[in-house]
């Protein structure tokens, strides 16, 4: 309940924080990991950065951790505003916890520091890179904090009731059972009014079984109990993107686009991370092309990140390499010397120096023009 209120007043982060403090100080509710992360996401997206750091430090001191969703969302906002020091601080904070960022995040941040600040040898810049490396080294440790799950603290009573009929708890499926007439009857008997918030929360909690999440998503639509919107489409897309449901994932996001809705930045970043972990390079490029065709375009450095992914793969696929370049430049972006330097360095790191001429040719065809400093 507290988490829902925080998310709904999130358009005004200061009010969200006041409510958060009032509930805690009035002893009406003892804040848990979910409510701390909810208010942290609100503060991280606005000019409330001092308050953001105060809240997450307090959260850590109380034994709670930053959720992956919070990290990804705030990281995106910090990167867009070129708040490099805060980006690195956020990475260090996350690496010190149980929910560590995906491995490639380190390389991304090092590149971000190098590109935005122009040179690693300038005053203060090398120190930032050392800070990231230090955090990465600490992330190698096998120590994981045990988080106590309080099953009595729920996001919303109605969500629990629906999950109960689906035979799921908020944290883990009790047993895998396909959808049945009996399950449908039990849910109908609840006589619940399905709002966007309600459907989204059920989808997120039933995400341990993506197939069942999709069935529920389809059922509320076909039963005309709820018309899917952008938030619920993105919620089910995130569920399908993290499991072995790739065909269904693409079907859902294509349907979402055809209905006039867009992929949220959080969905893109999360699914991109999962695809990268599985080395699904073609799907990574397809996802990039899909996102670039929408309103919520990925950050510019994503192009370099993907070019590196293609280069260091099992085989250098020049078709995918050129696709990334085309997707990037067709949106009015330009290839730079620093981008060329990064991709050539990546080739060298995997012993493919002989492929440099192919890469340079592809970049020239993509509109790259070297200046006198190259």
How does this model look, in words?
PPR repeats lie at residues 32-66, 229-263. The protein is an all-alpha fold and 374 residues long. The protein folds into four domains: 1-64, no CATH class; 80-140, no CATH class; 154-261; 273-374. It has helices at residues 2-8, 13-25, 33-44, 49-61, 68-80, 84-95, 104-117, 125-138, 157-165, 181-188, 196-205, 210-222, 230-241, 246-258, 265-277, 281-292, 301-311, 318-329, 337-349, 356-365. Helix 2 (13-25) runs antiparallel to helix 3 (33-44), helix 11 (196-205) runs parallel beside helix 13 (230-241) and helix 15 (265-277) packs antiparallel against helix 16 (281-292).
Describe the structure in brief.
The protein is built from 20 helices and no strands.
Give a quick set of tags describing it.
374 residues, mainly alpha, 4 domains, 20 helices, 0% strand, BIR6-like, PPR_rpt, Pentatricopeptide repeat-containing protein, repeat
Structural class: mainly alpha
Number of strands: 0
What's the helix-strand series? HHHHHHHHHHHHHHHHHHHH
Rounded mean pLDDT score: 74
How much β-strand is present in the residues? Answer: under 5%
Give the radius of gyration. 22 Å
The outline comes out as globular
Distance between the termini: 57 Å
Unreliable runs = 114-126, 132-158, 167-177
Number of helices: 20
């Amino acid at each position: 309940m507290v988490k829902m209120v925080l998310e709904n007043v999130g358009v005004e982060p200061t009010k969200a924080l006041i409510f958060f403090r009032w509930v805690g100080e009035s002893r009406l509710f003892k804040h848990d990991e979910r409510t701390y992360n909810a208010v942290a996401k609100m503060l991280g997206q606005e000019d409330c950065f001092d308050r953001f750091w105060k809240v997450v430090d307090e959260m850590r001191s109380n034994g709670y951790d930053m959720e992956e969703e919070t990290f990804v969302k705030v990281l995106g906002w910090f990167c867009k505003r070129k708040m490099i020091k805060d980006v690195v601080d956020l990475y260090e904070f996350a690496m010190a916890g149980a929910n560590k960022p995906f491995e490639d995040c380190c390389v991304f941040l090092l590149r971000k520091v190098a590109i935005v600040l122009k040179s690693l040898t300038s005053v203060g810049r090398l120190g930032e890179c050392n800070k990231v490396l230090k955090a990465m080294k600490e992330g190698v440790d096998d120590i994981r904090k045990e988080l106590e799950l309080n099953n009595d603290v729920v996001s919303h009573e109605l969500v629990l009731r629906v999950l109960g009929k689906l035979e799921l708890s908020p944290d883990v499926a009790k047993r895998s059972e396909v959808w049945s007439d009996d399950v449908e009857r039990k849910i109908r008997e609840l006589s619940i009014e399905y709002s966007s918030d309600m459907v989204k929360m059920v989808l997120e909690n039933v995400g341990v079984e993506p197939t069942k999440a999709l069935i529920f998503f389809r059922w509320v639509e076909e039963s005309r109990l709820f018309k899917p919107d952008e938030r619920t489409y993105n919620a089910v897309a995130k569920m399908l993107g993290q499991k072995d449901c790739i065909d269904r994932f693409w079907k859902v996001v294509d349907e979402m686009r055809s209905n006039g809705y867009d992929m949220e930045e959080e969905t893109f970043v999360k699914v991109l991370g999962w695809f990268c972990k599985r080395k699904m390079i073609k799907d990574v490029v397809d996802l990039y092309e899909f996102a670039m065709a929408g309103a919520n375009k990925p950050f510019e450095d994503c192009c370099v990140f993907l070019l590196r992914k293609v280069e260091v793969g099992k085989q250098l696929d020049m078709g995918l390499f050129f696709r990334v370049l085309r997707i990037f430049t067709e949106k009015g972006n330009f290839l730079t010397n620093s981008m060329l330097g990064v991709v050539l360095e990546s080739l060298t790191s995997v012993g493919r120096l002989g492929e440099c001429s192919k890469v340079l040719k592809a970049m020239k065809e993509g509109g790259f023009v070297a200046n006198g400093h190259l």
